[in-house]
Amino acid sequence: MVDSAASAPIRVLVVDDEENQRRGLASMIAVWGFQTETAADGQEALEKLPDFNPHVMITDLMMPRLDGFELLRRLGAQGNRVATIVLTAFGNIETAIATVHDLGAFWFMEKPIKADVLRALLGRAAAQSRMAEETERLQRQLSYRGVLGDLVGSSQPMQEVYSLIRQVAPSKAAVLITGESGTGKELVARALHQLGARSGGPFVAINCAALPETLIESELFGHEKAAFTGAVERRAGCFELAQRGTLLLDEIAEMPASTQAKLLRVLEDSRVRRLGGKSEIEVDVRLVAATNRPVPEALESGRLRGDLYYRLNVFQIALPPLRNRLEDLPQLTEALLTDLNRKHNTRVAGAEDAVLDRFRRYSWPGNVRELRNVLERAVVLAGEGVLSTGYLPPGFGDSVALPVTAAAGPGAVTLPVGTKVSEAEKALILSTLAHAGNNRTRAAEILGISLKTLFNKLKEYNSETDS
Ligand SMILES: Nc1ncnc2c1ncn2[C@@H]1O[C@H](COP(=O)(O)OP(=O)(O)OP(=O)(O)O)[C@@H](O)[C@H]1O
Ligand SMILES: [Mg+2]
Fold this sequence. Notes:
The protein has 467 residues and is of the alpha/beta class. It has 19 helices and 20 strands.
């Protein structure tokens, strides 16, 4: 395969307010075969970056309008990871290290510039940049084939999820992941981490539902020795552990309201104080939260504080339930079988069409986790060969007789694609009747039909079940 990108010249942006230095550098670099562009300060660099899209940037630190530190900070916030060589004053090693360590510069170079050192550095920075470009290209290609991180599925709803993940992963913006249980929220959180600038840092997950109220704050914020009975040792909390990485707050709506208030404060100040601690610790953490509760409901019932929700919901990624992307079943089955074969040391080669047919007719209330469980049982029983329907749990899919299922939330009807209008009408009428406590007059009112029509419909349904 011809890789056109590899033969195109490496683009280098030179940012320096001293005109002589800027021009001199640019022409020297151009002679080495790089394509160059210049900017007189950070502001101009920010303006030129999107169009020129350099592989490497060489920047001075002290500049008018917008200096080199601020330039790097802004690029970091935008998720722009252009490999940057920072020019520093001779002997100022502390500043140099700070730019590399805190601002993520590729490397630093003391002035006056030594041509051979710069050339070697440029070569290395360019190689890193090319590699990042290549990784991104491969990831893109994979996600078009229906795989992103550990997520599988090429259906339209999943493509939309991948596209959102790719867009928001590079930034530090908070993300709220919603979706029913077992739809892959944790996998999305991991993909956000892996595809972002923080992939080298830690990924820490805390399940707010699994912890008793008394423990959750010490888990989140840490505690000093003897902060409370049982605190025998000082301990860092999740925020500190996730420093420069990603923190997943799983099942956020299960977090006690008082803890949610404290969490909000930490997010606003980017600082935590350990329980029983005196000083505050600065934290640099990308926050991802997940919930399987429908958000409007969680807000209304007060389980999720509105102010915290607005702080977390900078981006929302809503995962589709499996029943809305049944076309992904063959691909999911294949990927899960590969994984399960590895786990159980089995050699199951696939599933018969009849199995997939059954899968397609099922509504999967437990989503991909349920599919995985069904397949895991089958893999263990079969050990090898192609799975037949005999390996499915007894009674599997019996509930498919009802194509219309009531949604998890009360007062809602979920209609899988493929539902007939008559079936949808029946489901709506029956669930409204149930909602109205079997009061037919009230149900007819809600439905906006006459009592007579309602009676007729019910009679029709009754004769259906009789026949
Ligand atoms: N798109 C997917 N491709 C492959 N595997 C998936 C996908 N979605 C979910 N899974 C698998 O399904 C299981 C459940 O996924 P995960 O734990 O991410 O769900 P969740 O949405 O966090 O569920 P819960 O709300 O119950 O915590 C895992 O084993 C995961 O690997
Ligand atoms: Mg989860």
